[in-house]
Predict the 3D structure of the following.
Amino acid sequence: MLNLLNAIERKILFYKISNILWPIKKEELKKFLPLALLMFCTLFNYQILRNLKDSLIVSSVGAESISFLKLYIVVPAALIFTIAYIKILNYLDDRKTFYLINIFFISFFLIFAFFLYPNQHAIHPKSETIVLLVNEFPRLKWFILLSGKWSYSLVYVLAELWGSIMLSLLFWQFANKICTTQEAKRFYSMFGLLGNFGLILAGTFTRIFSHASPSVTITASFLTISVFCIFSILSYYFINTSVLIDSKYLKPELKIKNKKSKLSFKESMKLITSSKYLGLILLLIVCYGITINLVEGPWKAKVRELYPSQNEYLNFMGVYSQFMGLGSVVLFFFASNILRLFRWKTSALITPIIISITGLGFFGLCIFQSNSLIFGSVIVGSGPIIIAVLLGAIQNIVSKATKYSLFDSTKEMAYIPLENELKTKGKAAVDVIGGRFGKAGGALLQSSILIIFPNAAYSNLTTIIYITIIFSFFCFVWFFAVNKLSREYEIIKS
């Protein structure tokens, strides 16, 4: 009898452990696995694009130019896309819209790889012309430098939009549409866990490509991205044609087909601004975008100083991607259980807490670098620039791993209790425009300083102090928004 009880206890313990490590039920695999594959492909492409866009712009123009791109080009591009997306939804269903957007990205990637990049010397202005214009208009220095590499700038813009469109908007909108709240608690963190292996694979591919000539690197990278776009399309097609035809995989409200409501862009924006709930979600996204952007600029300037060539920079970003993927995978094991065992508020607070601590630590290093870097050099045995790059990389890895594992999951869970109209057009404006304006907030500060003081740089102590103060303010606003949204979430959910 005692042996029987021990056997039962062991089985119960095994079940509990397996449920923690893999909370997906066997009958849910047909729905879960293709969704996880879709996220894997999306994150793989997202990370390769991030590495490419930074290597092209930072190595050829400078890290300071990123603020100008994000504020003056990416934000208007996001606004234009949102208007176009809402218009398209009035004429095409979700499936056709997904296919159309993927085809658009694939077309551009192939055009850049096989036409624009090989002919860059013919399509870009001569360097002598750019130097003369910079000398004549020093306050417009970064705008002129970016226009001198306009095809690189275009890659940067579309790479930035990829994250907002393909991940934040299309993937999560689709997942929210077909997953229940109970499924989301188990599925969403596991999506990230499996999807973040895409970051590790992307880092490996990036490092392999970085050892080839620049032209081969660009061609191989964009061909690989296009192939994974095709995998995404096939996965999406399978879900719609083989999974959702079975009523047991549908949310109850999806079993009844409602007539599509057509709203203009103005009406959609009015719908969003009149919703306190969506406004709070928007505030979360804006605070994340501002805080992470304020740290990234100074760090990428240090990386360029250490790795000045495009291929050296790309190789470093490949290593960085691998460690970020590993960090995300580790955190996802904890995140999946945090989402299931704790309240939404508790899960949502972890990201701003970690970003606040690591961000203030990095800025503290920059402010007191004369003492901290010397101390770090003695302890680690490396030069000051290596210490700065290493600590900045750790900050970015931990922050983004937490973002992928908890911030995205809790944010997307907040959409689930909303009515369908707010989940689609409302989410489109909040995620795409909100994400852009979040990053633009940090970019506005940095670009304004660089315009007013043409000789300013991220190494300027006064600039870093101002950035630290603003960083701290938005961390406080973030905590406030999570607290308010948690109350609204519990009311709507119940």
